[in-house]
Design goal:
There is one protein chain. The chain has a single domain, classed as TIM Barrel (Alpha-Beta Barrel), CATH 3.20.20. The chain is built from 17 helices and nine strands. Helix 8 packs across helix 11. The longest helix is centred in the middle third of the chain and has 25 residues. It is globular. The protein starts with a helix and ends with a helix.
Length: 357
């Protein structure tokens, strides 16, 4: 589906008469306003499962791709063209701001982010510069181009939440048990606090760059927060995630807070200050809604259900949409990212089902 066709279906106008995302179903749902259909977008919709993505990325490293405004623009637009989703998600990676300020890291295929010199001391934290717009001119250029192309379709910016980013910096790469991360959190609280303050400062600056360039909403991803108990999250993490969300509170865009395996943390994710709480697939949406208070919710179809027969997938999607009606607002999404082997045609069927339900 051409981008222009999507704009026609999702059209809204600003005071100048130009198309604007302001009255899109996505933004209305995040504000808890009535919508004519449940809006839908997918985490990791930009990339991974799309053949057109694999083609344009061929031979180009992940971080190199994220720093190329033309490539970022094309990849971000691909799922909007293909599916007609209600929002685009900016193509990037949660460690990009660290790379931009000079942290020696790379994203290795099949592994993920790998940090050359893991953080261990206060001196290591002090050596990480704060982020300014001059560090990420490619982000500003890409978002400016995307907003012009997307018209009335909102663009979602994002950043990695302090705990998840800290885990990569402390572990030196992905970890299943986060042992080094928790060892610092418990045993060196001064270093831990300094590190999360540093990341929160970088996050807030990076999200502000995206909003200033035209992003209509932002999402804070906490991929590893499910490794924490509620007490540990409240004591050692929540203040830093809250500081990120507070720093951008007055910028006029909805703030989405999403974590993986965070059923027990949902009230705390809400308390951190989000306007919308993302719910992963492990927690039924009907159970999650009372836990987040008077906020919109996002989610939460199990990403593996797109491999089931279409009628099974859509039946479960219908149940989620029905459950979402009890929330202040509901944005349909998967309960985590699109899996690489997902059939794009199945996601198209799912999108069409949600829009027509």
């Amino acid at each position: 589906m051409p981008v222009a066709d999507v704009h026609t279906r999702r059209e809204g106008c600003d005071d100048s008469g130009m198309t604007s995302p302001r009255d899109s179903a996505f933004l209305r749902a995040t504000r808890g306003e009535p919508v004519d259909h449940t809006p839908v977008w997918y985490m990791r919709q930009a990339g991974r499962s799309l053949p057109e993505y694999l083609k344009v990325r061929e031979g180009i490293g992940m971080l190199e791709s994220c720093m190329n405004p033309d490539l970022v623009t094309e990849i971000t637009l691909q799922p909007v063209r293909r599916y007609g989703v209600d929002a685009a998600i900016f193509f990037s990676d949660i460690v990009l701001p660290l790379k931009a300020v000079g942290v020696d890291l790379d994203i290795l295929p099949g592994v993920g982010p790998v940090v050359a010199h893991p953080v261990r001391t206060l001196a290591d934290v002090a050596a990480i510069p704060d982020l300014t717009p001059d560090h990420v001119p490619f982000t500003t250029a890409a978002i400016t181009a995307l907003v012009a192309e997307l018209g009335a379709t909102p663009l979602i910016g994002f950043a990695g939440a302090p705990f998840t980013v800290a885990s990569y910096l402390v572990e030196g790469g992905p970890s299943k048990d986060h042992a080094l991360t928790k060892a610092m959190m418990y045993g060196a609280p001064d270093v831990w606090d300094a590190l999360l303050r540093k990341i929160a400062t970088i996050d807030a600056a990076y999200l502000k760059v995206q909003i200033d360039a035209g992003a209509s909403a932002v999402q804070l991803f906490d991929s590893w927060a499910g490794a924490l108990t509620p007490d540990d999250y409240r004591r050692s993490v929540l203040p830093h995630s809250a500081s990120v969300l507070t720093a951008i509170a007055g910028l006029g865009v909805p703030r989405i807070h999403f974590g993986v395996g965070t059923g027990s943390l949902l009230p705390l994710l809400a308390e951190a200050g989000a306007d919308v709480v993302g719910v992963d697939w492990r927690t039924p949406l009907a159970d999650a809604i009372p836990r987040v208070g008077d906020r919109a919710v996002q989610g939460n179809l199990d990403p593996t259900l797109v491999f089931a027969p279409t009628e099974v997938m859509t039946a479960r999607a219908g149940e989620i949409i029905d459950a979402g009606r009890a929330a202040k607002g509901h944005v349909f999404n998967l309960g985590h990212g699109v899996l690489p082997s997902t059939d794009p045609d199945q996601l198209l069927r799912l999108t069409e089902f949600v829009h027509a339900y």
